[in-house]
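Researcher: Please translate sequence to structure tokens.
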Amino acid sequence: MKPRRVLYLTVGIPAALFLVLILTVLFIPSRELQGVIVRGLANEGYTFHASSFGKAFPIGLTARNMEIGDDRGPLFRADTATVRLQLLPLFLGDVKVTVRARIGSGKLEGVWSRRNGGDLHASGVQLEDIPFFPTVAGASAKGILQVEARLQGRQTATRGEIKLDVKGAELAGIKIGGTPLPDSSYRQIQGMLKIAGGKATLESFSLEGDGLYVRLRGDLPITTPLANAPLNLTLELMPKPEFLERQKFVFLLLSKHLTSPGHYEIPIKGMLSRPALP
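Model: Translation complete:
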């Protein structure tokens, strides 16, 4: 094959694919694209709403006042969210997508590449701007969240880690399967989730509170949809005597989980979307 023909094929095929992609995005109405997202999430049991939805230059989608939820209510909200397909990687044989979202005073940024996997960074996000807590746990939550995630592979072949850090947290009104947990303020919440071999394992997850130390351990399988993943977790509560006295009614309800003086071990089962106590 002549060098000139090789050059034409090398440059021409990606250019043709790029042109087809551009024309496809340009000529499909935004409402139809939104419908695809709505139907895709509905198949997984989720709802999608946005006050405005449109295309982002050069190839992308953007939404304002976006909300994702389920039959119980909203789980995630963003003031703005934009997804863009990067052009240059297409010519190098890769598919790369970037995500940017504004959540109150915080931000979320991510990138996914078919070749290199995905990275996610969230900073300055106020817990009270995340509706997951009142919707799933019936709780009020405050604090500043930071997340760093690195993932590769797909579904059961996914591997990587997720690091979480919350400063100045306050959690109140948390219930699991109707059973209340102690209200407390926490100086720091830190956690690391390792993903490998089709399973997500809590390497560490601790909450250092005023008079209360909490540790969560266990694992769950990576399933599709992830919301239906069965939980195999244990929540450890280690209250100081004065803290226990202030919330003695709550600890009385948890007395069957007392394993030694000042040490409670509570098994958490159910599904990721619906935790429960056995």
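Researcher: Any highlights?
Model: The chain has six helices and 18 strands.
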